[in-house]
Design goal:
single chain, about 120 residues, alpha+beta, four-stranded antiparallel sheet
């Protein structure tokens, strides 16, 4: 199942030389794991709440590929070029199946809540 690496970054201004080098080299660290950018350096349109910073979304063929990429020596060598210069949060997350049904998830959650409420 497709997985994603999502970063919410907080740049202080234009990228410095280290961040530019990070951007230039990151794709080569992702290629062996089937990673690709879905969102990068694109303005967000905030519809609710507050969203300071920038959003980056990477796609991988599976969560294990995303984990292996993140832990890889190539990426770990590169990562400080960004993290020294820009605060942020990075998460890995599995996607949902193409036929995912939010209604079925809600029904399962309701059933579980009902079971939990009846077990005393």
């Amino acid at each position: 199942m497709t997985a994603y690496a999502i970063a919410h970054l907080h740049p202080d201004g234009p990228p410095n030389e280290e961040v530019l080098e990070y951007i230039e080299r990151i794709q080569s660290t992702m290629d062996p794991y089937g990673g690709r950018f879905l969102v990068h350096n694109t303005p967000v349109e905030v519809m609710e709440g507050d969203w300071p910073g920038a959003l980056v979304v990477l796609e991988f063929p599976a969560i294990e590929a995303a984990r292996t990429w993140f832990a890889s020596p190539a990426y770990q060598e590169l990562a400080p070029l960004r993290s020294r210069n820009m605060a942020g949060d990075v998460v890995l997350v599995d996607g949902v199946a193409r036929d995912y049904d939010a209604g079925a998830t809600a029904a399962a959650l309701r059933a579980e809540a009902l079971r939990a409420a009846t077990v005393v």
